[in-house]
């Protein structure tokens, strides 16, 4: 005689609800992989063809206009430079040479060994909904001492770049314009 009136007997339910359909799984996996590859290709084409980095490599001429300074003879001073830049990804490197100075002490041109040289380091910030920006740090070997300038430049259309600069020489700040041809 059984001890319990109702014995528990496990039952096996045979159903296809929980089973994995191998052919459906493989087709879903292939669709996901192919969709991912197509999406990656579209992003690559958009980055390289539709929204490429601007071409800042090559020779540039730029002009600084001092707007604020703690040293009065530099107020309103205009300096002109020539630069050679190149891109390594979005990293910018290069050199600059001062070619002209127009200040309260007069206008001077610098030729050959009289030019001061500087080293450029910076980066190009890619913006998809507004103009790209170029941030540069220039260390220049001046006639009396080394100087440091920082540039925040908007890369505009038609080979013109404009922005601002800050210099450690006499705490100067002002506007800067970069273009492909001499001023």
What does this structure look like?
The protein has an eight-stranded antiparallel β-barrel with strand order 1-2-3-5-6-7-8-9. It is of the alpha+beta class and 183 residues long. The model has no long low-confidence stretch (mean pLDDT 88). The longest helix is centred in the first third of the chain and has 29 residues, at 22-50. The protein is elongated. The protein has one helix spanning 22-50, and strands at residues 58-68, 78-88, 91-103, 106-109, 117-125, 132-141, 146-155, 160-167, 173-179. The protein has two domains: 11-52; 58-179, Quinohemoprotein amine dehydrogenase alpha subunit, domain 2 (Lipocalin). It contains one helix and nine strands.
Round the mean pLDDT to the nearest integer and report it. Answer: 88
Instruction: Give the amount of beta strand, in percent.
Output: over 45%
Counting helices, strands and paired strands, the structural category is: alpha+beta
Structural shape: elongated
Instruction: Calculate the terminal CA-CA distance, rounded to whole Å.
Output: 112 Å
CATH class of the largest domain: Mainly Beta
Radius of gyration: 32 Å
The spatial strand order of the largest sheet comes to 1-2-3-5-6-7-8-9
- CATH 4th-level superfamily of the largest domain: Quinohemoprotein amine dehydrogenase alpha subunit, domain 2
The helix-strand sequence is: HEEEEEEEEE
Q: If helices are DSSP runs of H or I spanning 4 or more residues, what is the number of helices? A: 1
What about the largest sheet? Answer: 8 strands, antiparallel, barrel
Low-confidence stretches: none
Q: Could you tell me the number of beta strands?
A: 9
Q: Which percent bin holds the helix content?
A: 10-25%
Number of domains: 2
Task: Tell me which CATH architecture of the largest domain applies here.
Answer: Beta Barrel
